[in-house]
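Bench notes, afternoon.
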Amino acid sequence: MSDQGVVVIRAGREKAIRRRHPWVFSGAIARVEGSPADGDIVTVRGESGEFLARGYWNSRSLIRVRLLAWDEDEVCDTAFWERRLKRAIDARHVENRIYRHGTANACRLVNAESDGIPGLVVDRYGDWLVIQALTLGIDVRKMMLADVLAELLNPAGVYERSDVDIRQKEGLPSHTGLLRGQEPPDLIEIDENGRRFLVDVRTGHKTGFYLDQRANRATIGDWFRWDEKSDQRVVLNAFAYTGGFAVYALGGLVQRVINVDSSADALAMARRNIALNGYDTSDEDFVEGDVFQVLRAYRDAGQSFDMVILDPPKFAQSARQVERASRGYKDINLLAFRLLKPGGVLATFSCSGAISEDLFQKIVFGALIDSGRDAQIIQRLGQSSDHPVALTFPEGAYLKGLLCRVW
């Protein structure tokens, strides 16, 4: 299989490519030789003709080439994709230490650029695989990739959840549906660290569940486990979604978790997941509403909590939205600081890739100063180890969090 064109990089713009960053932006390109169709494999060369890398082309994206290989002898044929998929999958099976109770039946198997396959996400939920084709180069190959995945893992089915906003930047519409095998059931039951959850892979957030928070859920679940007053502790779980943090906190023997979310459907699923794990709740433990407004109401009523968990959706979709997102993060953290009892714990997160870890800490610091409280960082939190970050692709470290003790 021969490459379909040559992309020539402007002199002085090769540095990132030589360092194996997988993106080539339009501004770095001097010219294109040949007539590659969008999705075709192209060779990337310097202006003096030297080989730099090989990747797939999309004229409709600001990221014109997604790089796949830096060895001139490596051909990006079907065998190449098979090798990359097998390497990613085998890494998860070998590194069982990422699971606390044997091999979990829900995890990320392929993490796009950080696994050397830009634009492809593959998540496992029980006997089903869910894939996201985030780029055109992956979209045109998704049936082949589904075939390879089916051969490697023999799942009951391969389901597509390519309904994310980033596809618009690639000139692609949203798409969901079955690619191979059997349709998934309405709800798939998964096991995570001995906890049970129901997952809707058709309409749930991301591919159905926040797999990237696995390790952080375990950390929070362990927090009160050896506290002699744990059965008196009350946790506020803001942006609760389907109750992942709540299940772990209740397993840590706290007295009560109050779950707040704007989605009635998410709260209904949270109630089911909590019951599935054998914990009793009341209607008052599930509050539907705008989280900012609900927390303000708690503040005005003088309520306080032993722990506040903030796991909001992405506030910044791009660099242009960072300023507005920063105000939102500061507001919600300020409310949390004012709701915590002395000695209480704040677990606060940002999944906005445009918000750096350093900026996020500064935002939380600003909220702390305005609250008039004191706090310590107990632990820095990030995405679970089945969401690895390639050293050549720091943008892959999108999830950041702080565990803080507040006085």
